[in-house]
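TOKENISED FOLD:
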Amino acid sequence: MGGLPVQNTSALALPGLQQNHGSAKTTSGAESKPKKKICCACPDTKKLRDECIVEHGEEACAKWIEAHRMCLRAEGFNV
């Protein structure tokens, strides 16, 4: 019986993780769960995108914005 309270305690900690899992799936459920948080995925393209936007403005950086989106999609995010 000692295992039941532990399962209840761990279930209380999981709702935040389950919400992230649900937001990463498509409506068809075909994509798998991303292995990273979106903020930590694709650091190279994120850095290039952010630097470009700061220096030149969002309108001039469509190439880097799209490259970052493609990277995030490859990581399993629905963006």
